[in-house]
Every structure is written in C-alpha cells, then in structure tokens.
Amino acid sequence: MSRRQKEQRQYNAYTYEDGNTVRRLETAPDYSDEERRRRKEERRISEQKRRRRRAARRNRERALKMNAGYVAFLSVCVMVVALVSAAYVDLQSDLIIRQRAIEKLESEISTLKLENDAAYRRVTASIDLKEVKKQARKLGMKYPSEDQIVHYTIDNADYMMQYSD
After folding, report:
1. Which residues partner with 16 through β-bridges?
2. What is the pLDDT of residues 97-150, one digit of tens each?
3. Per the confidence metrics, is the pTM higher than 0.70?
4. Are 10 and 3 in contact (CB under 8 A)?
C-alpha cells in the first residue's frame, strides 16, 4: 500500500464532509480503549459459552455411552427385580388361598355351633324335669345326705381328676 493511499484512508477515517463545500478535519473520539475492552469482554463471554457447550456435549456423549459392565449390571438389576416381583406375587397368592381356607373353616365352625345349639335346645326342650323326678322316686332314688357329699378345693387348676376308691 502506498503512502498516498494510507494518507487518503486516514483522511477519510478522520474527516467528514459537511454539505458539499467545506471540509473540516475532525478527529474521531477515541473509543479504541472502550471498544477494545468491550470486544475483549464479548470474546471472553463467547469463549465461556463455547466451553460450556463443549462440556455439555461431552457430558451428553458420556451419558449415552454404555459399556459392557454397565449393561451387565443393569440386566442383573432387572432380573433381581423380576425375581423379587414374582416371589411377591407367589406369596400374595398363597396368602389369599390360605385366607379363603380359613374363612371356609370359620364358616363351618359357626355352622356347627349353630347346629349344636339347636340340638341342645331340642334336647332340653324335650326333657320334662318333673317327670324325671317322679320316675327317680319310683325307682327309689332320693336326695343325698350330708355324709355322702364330698367337697373338693382346686388350687389354680382348670380341671380335676377324680379316682374312685
């Protein structure tokens, strides 16, 4: 570049035409320091953004990679969960079956108790105690005397064994 071209460029850079008659030489304000700082800050910010994007991309790539050990670990975990779930379902079905059996036995017990109570009421209703007393006197039975009655004491036992002499 020739010297003349340089001067022309500098002249154009620092002057402007006011209308078509007068040319004045005015210096441009010195924004170079501020401009340099602003550009430097913009570069720093854009570089930080680029670094963050690169780091995020690397992290995503790492997260998507699955090596053989990781796949084996995950498949073992899935199998363990499946086995535990199957065992749980099996235990639940056993529990339900046993509950139904218990309910069936309880209903049988209550039915038998009702039948037993009904039979007891029939028997007690069919017995005439006055007639029994009358027949007992006819056969020579009488009430026991005091010397025939034996009293027993039970010490915190729920039953008593009696042996005849």
Report:
1. 24
2. 999 999 999 999 999 999 999 999 998 888 888 888 899 999 999 888 888 888
3. no
4. no
